[in-house]
Amino acid sequence: MPNTPLVQVTNLYRYYSQACAVRDVSFELARGDVLGFLGPNGAGKTSTMQMITGNLAPSAGAIRILGVDLLDEPRRAKLDIGYLPEQPPVYRELTVDEYLAYCARLNRIERRLQPAAIATAKERCGLGDVGRRLIGNLSKGYQQRVGIAQAIIHTPAVVILDEPTVGLDPLQIREIRNLICELGRDHGIILSTHILPEVQATCNRVQIIHRGRLVFSDHTADLEQRTRAHALLARFLATPDASALQQLPGVQRVDMLDDQRVRLFFAGQDPSEALIERSVSAGWRLVELGSERSTLEQIFIDLTTGDATPHDTEAAA
Predict the structure, then answer these.
(1) What is the rounded CA–CA span in Å between residue 265 and residue 248?
(2) Half-sphere exposure of residue 213, counting CA atoms within 13 Å on the CB side?
(3) What does the pLDDT read at residue 40?
(4) CA–CA gap between residue 213 and residue 178 (Å, rounded)
(5) Strand pairing class (213-219; 229-236)
(6) Residue among 84, 64, 72 at smallest CA distance from 152
(7) Which of 1, 32, 108, 125 could form a disulfide with 149 if both were Cys (CB 3.0 to 4.6 A apart)?
(8) Nearest to 276 by CA among 231, 242, 236
(9) 118 falls within a domain
(10) How far apart are CA 210 and CA 223, in angstroms?
């Protein structure tokens, strides 16, 4: 079934007593996707991750891994899941080779195939030179690499990474991001993170969860459309009334920032040219004009403050 999604999450709910932590969450993950899963603390992100990995039972809904129902056939479904928790599950007293051999046995890799699986995981994660070193003596960045190696040693279709770059220095962060991008060519990746630039650097899809609901789902390539200039900042020496600015084509709202500065929100046609022409003819004496752009951070803040509602979710995609 080449077109079967790697992950299908359908109408997922999770209650803790009377509190609903995850409410009607649906999405899919395809091979080659690197999905950035974002949400503030308490939004339901961790509960969703735990349900997808089979560590927490949903109150309602379905999870399928390569078409296999995770609840009905958990052992079979988990064969295609690799998971790196926020704290890598490594044993500091073992060497890298000893630990990966242990992980290979845990994942029921045939004994004759274990050396090749260990060698491949080490090569993909840049661990070829540290196989005999104790994990406890490795840097945090290398310990993260070991954690990712254990997640992919059985070549799962789906790899779930929870905050994989927390606590790393800038060079280590760059290395881990490059590794995630490389893994995304052969696997489906779900990346849980609070670091918004990380999503833009590594992910081709973004989802934001707030109060248990998915409130945003889009491809990062389409974010350019969302983050295009949507407001103008202007400063006048003879500031016009807001009503006069409101009449400019495309202007939806005018905020008077102070005696000279205004912000003009617009949709569709950029009113810059009309503003300049009108300023000259009406003597507004325009001296500054610039555009404001939305960012993923601003989108995140807008959707996770106040009473956000589901917005542009891709209907289980």
Answers:
(1) 11
(2) 13
(3) 85
(4) 30
(5) unpaired
(6) 84
(7) 125
(8) 236
(9) yes
(10) 19
pTM reported for the whole predicted model: 0.76
CB 97 within 8 A of CB 43: no
Q: SS3 helix, strand, coil % of the chain, rounded to 5?
A: 35, 30, 40
> 312 lies in a domain?
no
Note the pLDDT of residue 109: 96
Beta-strand ranges (E) seen in the chain are: 7-16, 19-29, 34-38, 60-65, 68-69, 81-84, 158-162, 188-192, 205-210, 213-219, 229-236, 251-256, 261-266, 286-293
Q: Which of 114, 129, 155 is the last residue of a domain?
A: 155
The candidate with the shortest Cα–Cα distance to 99, out of 148, 172, 163, 167, is 148
**Residue 101 belongs to domain spanning:** 86-155
Which two three-digit tokens encode residue 262?
């205004």
Within its chain, how far is the Cα of 151 from the centroid? 18
Last residue of a domain, one of 128, 155, 182: 155
Backbone angles phi, psi at 303, to 5 degrees: -85, -20
User: Given this model, what pLDDT does residue 315 score?
Assistant: 33
Query: Which residue ranges of the chain lie beneath pLDDT 50?
Result: 308-317
- The CATH number given to whatever domain includes residue 273 is 3.30.70.100
